[in-house]
Each structure stands twice: as C-alpha cells, then as structure tokens.
C-alpha cells in the first residue's frame, strides 16, 4: 500500500510540475527538517512548509485523495471548552464543525503536550479507524495556519503510522476551492 500511495502522490507531483513548469504545487515529498518537538503555544500562526516523514498536499491533491476514497481524513481542530458558570451545564452542547465530507473529527489531539486521556483517545481512534493497519493513509488537517494539524500528523508518525499526509490549508483552503464540507460532531 505504501508504494501505491507514494506512486500516486509522485504522479500528482509530476502532473503539477508539467502543468506549471515554474513551480511544483500540490504535493511535496518532504525530506527537509521542520521544528524540533511539538509546537506548544500560538497554534494559529504561520506553519512550516515541511513535516519530515510526511507528504504535504494542497486542496487539489487532497481532493484527489478524497475522491479515491482510500485515505482516512482526520480533522484535529480543538473542541471549544464548556463555558464556565452556565445556569444548566447539562444543556450545553459543543458547536458542530464544518469539516471535509467523510472526515472524522478528533479534537484536541494537536496540542503540543497531551493529557494521557487525550493521548489514549487519539491512539484508540487511530487504531479503530485504520483497523490496526499502520500503513493506512491518514490525511490530517485543521484550518489554515493551524499548528494543531502539524502536531497531530507528527504525533501519528511517532505512534508508528507510516502513510501520513499533512494538509496544512485545511478546511479554509478546501472551502475556498468550493469542495464539499459537512457538519460534524467530535468522535467519541
């Protein structure tokens, strides 16, 4: 499977290079270094172009993967906390999120340091989504300029998942391209 994903992504890279000789947009096989460790603060800030060990895609390449329906798309936007001092906290419901159609929303897994409960939540859900196949392609995203997806993608690789695709433009770039979004609640 790994060879197929790399062949497909290489095809996309070559296709975009042919279509635009001055630049190679769409897919980048990364070998450069990104920041060490995980981003701990200022999560809504410019993100690097690289994530060592991952493939970075734009909306067009992410859409091609989405159309093939072989990759698992994972939204890692944090879930808003319940407001303090509510009259009836039991009635509070987290707002729904518009994410890429067919995605799974795993909130709060992109923070720099995870509470053991969240770490376990991320590991269990990745295991369940991939049915234990650590070579299954995972497309991890959030919003544009969001370090949560970079951290979550890096963390998935640290867990042993080998086919990580990082989509740094996330739902912002996807929506701008006119691609389908749907309302979702977080995965339990």
Would you mind describing this structure in some detail?
With 188 residues, the protein is of the alpha/beta class. It has a single domain (28-80, 97-184), classed as Rhodanese-like domain (Oxidized Rhodanese, domain 1, 3-Layer(aba) Sandwich). Helix content is 33%, strand content 15%. It contains 5 helices and 8 strands, in the order H-E-E-H-E-E-E-H-E-H-E-H-E. It has helices at 2-19, 59-68, 116-130, 147-158, 170-176; strands at 27-29, 55-57, 72-75, 97-100, 104-105, 138-141, 164-167, 181-184. The strands form 2 sheets. A 6-stranded mixed β-sheet has the order 1-2-7-6-3-5. Strands 4-8 form a two-stranded antiparallel ribbon. Strand 6 (138-141), helix 4 and strand 7 form a beta-alpha-beta unit. The longest helix is centred in the N-terminal third of the chain and has 18 residues, at 2-19. It is globular. The two termini are 28 Å apart. Mean pLDDT is 85; it is low at 10-25 and 27-33.
Number of DSSP helical runs = 5
CATH topology: Oxidized Rhodanese, domain 1
CATH architecture: 3-Layer(aba) Sandwich
Task: Give the strand order of the largest sheet, numbering strands 1, 2, ... along the chain.
Answer: 1-2-7-6-3-5
Instruction: Detail the poorly predicted runs.
Output: 10-25, 27-33
CATH superfamily: Rhodanese-like domain
What percent of residues adopt helix (DSSP H or I)? 25-40%
C-alpha-based Rg, rounded: 17 Å
| Coarse morphology | globular
End-to-end CA span: 28 Å
